[in-house]
Amino acid sequence: MSRNVQDDMEWDGYEPEQRIDPEDDRPGPSDDPAVQDLEPRLLTLFDEHPEAVFYESQLAVHFESKFFHWVTVRALKELRGSGKVGTSLEELTPNTPIRFYFNRRNRYWKRRAEELRKLVLLFSNQAFTRSLGVQGELLVDAGLPRVGFQPMADTVREWEGRSWLATNHDLDRVFQRDGINYGAEIKNRLGYIPQDEFAIKLKMCAALNLVPLFIARMMPKTYIEEVRQAGGFSLIMKHQFYPMSHRALAVRVKSELGLPVDCPARLQDSTLQRFLTWHEGKARRMSRATS
């Protein structure tokens, strides 16, 4: 992506899904006003950058501050159905699709699409995506104790005599402060946690009598509201965190694709303070309720 396109693809303070092509069949009305609102914005992006090529997840992240990822996918599906944009479904690797979009006047899209495919492949292989998950957990494990949250357990399916037997899922961590136990799920990925997995993790927290704590780069407001209603907190990190050994790749992904990735040595104090402030309010309310 050119520098000008990247400048246009700033995230309004939001930041990145490791799934490459979010073909989302989530049910929704064909006349969804959000889809109708987004379509002209997409066309404007293609018109303003006629030589650029984008891939589907990239565009979903680009518009996420105003539109859910699945809304962007639906809008793109309608645009390609109408023939208003150029598109091609290619293979990132065998059996792994990646869909490209471009201005129909772009005669040389194949060359740019192949360059894009090679770059996406660098951060989408299984070994690297696994390292991203580990990096997210390392930063959280080092960060939360700095503000008084003590790690109590990891890979949790049992807690204080309660067990989760309905599925083979587990919670990443249990943290504790002021007598409150948090069931933490940590997602260092560009896309949302899958809806079915999200629902299971919420049920697990209830079954194990843990306060839900979702730590993610980004979640839709609908998920965040469900966590709030369950008495929990969503700590939105706004960036996907690469290991420091891959700083050069992070710089390239950010500059060429405009994706919100970073290589911090630790979580920012202001990020941790958001959770601490919320926790202190919860602790006060619980204390008043039991006094």
Explain this structure:
The protein is elongated, with a radius of gyration of 20 Å. The longest helix is centred in the last third of the chain and has 22 residues, at 269-290. A 5-stranded mixed β-sheet has the order 4-7-8-9-10, with helices on both faces. The chain has a 3-stranded antiparallel β-sheet with strand order 1-3-2. It starts with a helix and ends with a helix. Helix 3 packs across helix 4. It folds into 2 domains: 19-123, Orthogonal Bundle (Arc Repressor Mutant, subunit A), CATH 1.10.10; 127-290, 3-Layer(aba) Sandwich (Trna Endonuclease, Chain: A, domain 1). It is α/β, with parallel strands linked by helices. It is built from 10 helices and 12 strands. It has helices at residues 3-8, 33-48, 56-62, 69-82, 109-122, 126-143, 195-207, 221-229, 247-257, 269-290; strands spanning 53-55, 86-93, 96-102, 150-156, 158-159, 162-163, 171-177, 180-187, 211-216, 233-236, 240-241, 261-262. Strand 9, helix 8 and strand 10 (233-236) form a beta-alpha-beta unit.
How would you describe this structure in keywords?
5-stranded mixed sheet; single chain; 10 helices; Trna Endonuclease, Chain: A, domain 1; 3-stranded antiparallel sheet; Arc Repressor Mutant, subunit A; 291 residues; alpha/beta; 45% helix
